[in-house]
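User: Hey, my collaborator sent me this sequence without any context and asked if I could get a structure. I don't really work with proteins. Can you help?
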Amino acid sequence: MRSFSAAPQLRALFFILFLSLYTMALSGNSLSMAATTFTSRLHIPMYLFLVSLAVFDVICASTVVPKLLEMLVAEKRGISYWGCVVQVYFLTWSLAAELLLLHAVAYDRYLAICHSLHYGSIISPRVCVVLAGALWGISVLGAGVNACLILWLTFCGSNVIDHFFCEIPPLLLLSCSCTYVNDIMAIMADIFAMLYFLLTTVSCGFIISTMLKMRTAKGKR
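Assistant: No problem. I've predicted the 3D structure and written it out in structure-token form, which is a compact way to encode the shape of the chain:
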């Protein structure tokens, strides 16, 4: 990896910056998980999703930032082949899970606000647990497929990535073998990401529309 090699005088500044951001991310998400766990009135579906979101946020940050900090202070800035594959897996898993969970939170709020009378019967604790488990399973499966496709590739040349972490597009550029299936998977992932983004936006739109139709200030609040 060649990260920040063009500006070595800024490495100390980048190290302090990313270490501070990483510490804040860990602290904020840990406090969020602790508050939800030890506060009984927060044991509702939305906060189960938010705790899962905090967990994956920690996984995502911990997949990239510690290695980045190491490269900022080490003379030899690189990562092993298997280390790169593991990083791709956990990064893909956490990002996919966060996207799905954000949509789940938006849909949960849509039902709670736009269909409040039926919310309790639709989103029961059992349904919530099953839905959260399905989101975890789908993201694990998708990340596993992408990691296996990377393992099937043959790499040659310098194997140098002009990036500070391993992700699929730069790795495909280094491959000497056919990347057709990998490219198809990447396109499908982009399509699904856009689809979930649109669905989340639509859910938020319905929520705002319902709030604007409420006549009382208490109801809007």
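In plain terms: The chain is about 75% helix and 0% strand. You can pass these tokens on to your collaborator as they are.
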